[in-house]
Specification:
Helix content: 55-70%
Order of helices and strands: HEEH
Low-confidence stretches: none
Structural class: mainly alpha
Number of strands: 2
Mean pLDDT: 94
Largest sheet: 2 strands, antiparallel
Oligomer: single chain
Distance between the termini: 10 Å
Radius of gyration: 14 Å
Length: about 60
Protein backbone atom coordinates (compact mmCIF):
# COMPACT_ATOMS: atom_id res chain seq x y z
CA UNK A 1 0.00 0.00 0.00
CA UNK A 2 1.35 3.42 -0.89
CA UNK A 3 1.91 5.89 1.96
CA UNK A 4 -0.77 8.32 0.75
CA UNK A 5 -3.38 5.55 0.58
CA UNK A 6 -2.37 4.31 4.05
CA UNK A 7 -2.67 7.81 5.54
CA UNK A 8 -6.07 8.28 3.86
CA UNK A 9 -7.38 5.00 5.27
CA UNK A 10 -6.21 5.99 8.75
CA UNK A 11 -7.78 9.47 8.50
CA UNK A 12 -11.13 8.09 7.27
CA UNK A 13 -11.11 5.43 10.00
CA UNK A 14 -10.41 8.05 12.68
CA UNK A 15 -13.21 10.29 11.40
CA UNK A 16 -15.59 7.31 11.46
CA UNK A 17 -14.56 6.52 15.04
CA UNK A 18 -15.13 10.14 16.04
CA UNK A 19 -18.67 10.03 14.63
CA UNK A 20 -19.35 6.71 16.38
CA UNK A 21 -17.99 8.09 19.65
CA UNK A 22 -20.32 11.07 19.37
CA UNK A 23 -23.27 8.72 18.92
CA UNK A 24 -22.30 6.51 21.87
CA UNK A 25 -21.46 9.35 24.27
CA UNK A 26 -24.39 11.54 23.13
CA UNK A 27 -22.17 14.63 23.04
CA UNK A 28 -23.56 17.91 21.76
CA UNK A 29 -22.02 19.78 18.84
CA UNK A 30 -22.87 23.42 18.18
CA UNK A 31 -21.82 25.12 14.95
CA UNK A 32 -22.23 28.88 14.81
CA UNK A 33 -24.79 28.75 17.59
CA UNK A 34 -26.90 26.05 15.92
CA UNK A 35 -26.98 22.58 17.51
CA UNK A 36 -26.17 19.72 15.13
CA UNK A 37 -28.72 16.89 15.49
CA UNK A 38 -27.46 13.53 16.72
CA UNK A 39 -28.81 11.70 13.68
CA UNK A 40 -26.33 13.59 11.48
CA UNK A 41 -23.54 11.41 12.87
CA UNK A 42 -25.10 8.25 11.43
CA UNK A 43 -24.54 9.08 7.75
CA UNK A 44 -21.21 10.64 8.71
CA UNK A 45 -20.09 7.38 10.29
CA UNK A 46 -21.35 5.30 7.38
CA UNK A 47 -19.67 7.48 4.75
CA UNK A 48 -16.30 7.67 6.49
CA UNK A 49 -16.26 3.98 7.39
CA UNK A 50 -17.31 3.05 3.86
CA UNK A 51 -14.56 5.18 2.34
CA UNK A 52 -11.96 3.64 4.65
CA UNK A 53 -13.05 0.10 3.80
CA UNK A 54 -13.31 0.72 0.06
CA UNK A 55 -9.91 2.41 -0.12
CA UNK A 56 -8.32 -0.35 1.96
CA UNK A 57 -9.79 -3.04 -0.29
CA UNK A 58 -8.81 -1.14 -3.44
CA UNK A 59 -5.18 -0.87 -2.42
CA UNK A 60 -4.99 -4.57 -1.48
CA UNK A 61 -5.76 -5.75 -5.02
Amino acid sequence: MRPVAYISVVVFALLALMQLTRLIMQSDVILDGVPVPMWASIPGFLVYAGLAVLLFRETRK
